[in-house]
């Protein structure tokens, strides 16, 4: 057994948002999080596991909403964590809160 | 408003060169500063959390790390904004939200429907609810030491 954490998927910055998230080939999962958000601590390892589970099929990134408030505002983020799935820069799904892994896999399977 | 003014002035002491030319936008600089919340505010929010859990019949998360992070987040906002604004939301304007009060802890959804999406106060039927309504300062420090 191994434990996944948030270091398994990279942080998107203002400069890389376009190239990594919006212009990527295939589906992209983005976790919007904040440093002092408790439920974010619960979802980090789940996203870490999904990153490995769907390696080659799904790209996973995270956005710190305190560091990148303009991206969060642009996508209407309110509750944190919010997980969004994009294809070709278009938002396909959004999941709010520290949900079970099965909820996220259901969202991912829909777009694969 | 008085509280906000006090909070910003106490922070501004250390960085007068940054605050003076930026006028109204100085709050944003203060809010985004990555510092540990003060021990005083952590203790205030720790005690508040224990009291409000008992009062509302709710329990802390089985993973007290979640509880600790949220308490520190509330303390951080108390330091920077003068009010314990919920740390599990994104706001276009934090000082304005803190002044408005809807998301100041305990927020309106918590007071009206016992809904805390930050998972600080969990009703007993919640899968993540533990059995405790108490958390020590040591627990908070230990579980947030590696952040």
From TrEMBL, chain A:
<keyword id="KW-1015">Disulfide bond</keyword>
<keyword id="KW-0249">Electron transport</keyword>
<keyword id="KW-0809">Transit peptide</keyword>
<comment type="similarity">
    <text>Belongs to the thioredoxin family.</text>
</comment>
<keyword id="KW-0676">Redox-active center</keyword>
<dbReference type="InterPro" id="IPR013766">
    <property type="entry name" value="Thioredoxin_domain"/>
</dbReference>
<dbReference type="GO" id="GO:0008047">
    <property type="term" value="F:enzyme activator activity"/>
</dbReference>
<feature type="domain" description="Thioredoxin">
    <location>
        <begin position="1"/>
        <end position="112"/>
    </location>
</feature>
<dbReference type="Pfam" id="PF00085">
    <property type="entry name" value="Thioredoxin"/>
</dbReference>
<keyword id="KW-0813">Transport</keyword>
<dbReference type="GO" id="GO:0015035">
    <property type="term" value="F:protein-disulfide reductase activity"/>
</dbReference>
<dbReference type="InterPro" id="IPR017937">
    <property type="entry name" value="Thioredoxin_CS"/>
</dbReference>
<dbReference type="InterPro" id="IPR005746">
    <property type="entry name" value="Thioredoxin"/>
</dbReference>
<protein>
    <recommendedName>
        <fullName>Thioredoxin</fullName>
    </recommendedName>
</protein>
<dbReference type="GO" id="GO:0005737">
    <property type="term" value="C:cytoplasm"/>
</dbReference>
UniProtKB/TrEMBL annotation, chain B:
<comment type="function">
    <text>Catalytic subunit of the ferredoxin-thioredoxin reductase (FTR), which catalyzes the two-electron reduction of thioredoxins by the electrons provided by reduced ferredoxin.</text>
</comment>
<protein>
    <recommendedName>
        <fullName>Ferredoxin-thioredoxin reductase catalytic chain, chloroplastic</fullName>
        <ecNumber>1.8.7.2</ecNumber>
    </recommendedName>
</protein>
<dbReference type="GO" id="GO:0051539">
    <property type="term" value="F:4 iron, 4 sulfur cluster binding"/>
</dbReference>
<dbReference type="GO" id="GO:0103012">
    <property type="term" value="F:ferredoxin-thioredoxin reductase activity"/>
</dbReference>
<keyword id="KW-0560">Oxidoreductase</keyword>
<comment type="similarity">
    <text>Belongs to the ferredoxin thioredoxin reductase beta subunit family.</text>
</comment>
<dbReference type="InterPro" id="IPR004209">
    <property type="entry name" value="FTR_bsu"/>
</dbReference>
<keyword id="KW-0479">Metal-binding</keyword>
<comment type="subunit">
    <text>Heterodimer of subunit A (variable subunit) and subunit B (catalytic subunit). Heterodimeric FTR forms a complex with ferredoxin and thioredoxin.</text>
</comment>
<keyword id="KW-1015">Disulfide bond</keyword>
<dbReference type="Pfam" id="PF02943">
    <property type="entry name" value="FeThRed_B"/>
</dbReference>
<dbReference type="GO" id="GO:0046872">
    <property type="term" value="F:metal ion binding"/>
</dbReference>
<keyword id="KW-0411">Iron-sulfur</keyword>
<dbReference type="GO" id="GO:0016730">
    <property type="term" value="F:oxidoreductase activity, acting on iron-sulfur proteins as donors"/>
</dbReference>
<keyword id="KW-0676">Redox-active center</keyword>
<keyword id="KW-0408">Iron</keyword>
<keyword id="KW-0004">4Fe-4S</keyword>
């Amino acid at each position: 057994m191994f434990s996944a954490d948030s270091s398994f998927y990279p942080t998107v910055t203002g400069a890389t948002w376009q190239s990594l998230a919006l212009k990527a080939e295939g589906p992209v999962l983005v976790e919007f999080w904040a440093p002092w958000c408790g439920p974010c601590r619960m979802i980090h390892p789940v996203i870490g596991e999904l990153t490995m589970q769907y390696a080659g099929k799904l790209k996973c990134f995270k956005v710190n909403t305190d560091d990148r408030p303009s991206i969060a505002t642009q996508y209407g983020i309110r509750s944190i964590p919010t997980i969004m799935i994009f294809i070709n820069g278009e938002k396909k799904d959004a999941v709010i809160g520290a949900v079970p892994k099965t909820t996220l896999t259901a969202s991912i399977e829909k777009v694969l | 408003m008085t509280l906000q003014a006090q909070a910003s002035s106490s922070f501004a002491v250390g960085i007068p060169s940054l605050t003076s030319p930026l006028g109204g936008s100085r709050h944003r600089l203060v809010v985004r500063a990555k510092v540990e919340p003060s021990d005083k505010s952590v203790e205030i929010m720790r005690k508040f959390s224990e009291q409000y859990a008992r009062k509302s019949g709710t329990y802390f998360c089985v993973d007290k790390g979640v509880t600790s992070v949220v308490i520190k987040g509330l303390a951080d906002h108390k330091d920077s904004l003068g009010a314990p604004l919920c740390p599990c939301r994104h706001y276009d304007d934090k000082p304005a939200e803190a002044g408005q009060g809807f998301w100041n802890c305990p927020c309106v959804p918590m007071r009206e429907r016992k809904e805390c999406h930050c998972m600080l106060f969990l009703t007993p039927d919640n899968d993540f609810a533990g059995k405790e309504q108490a958390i020590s300062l040591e627990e908070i420090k230990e579980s947030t030491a590696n952040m």
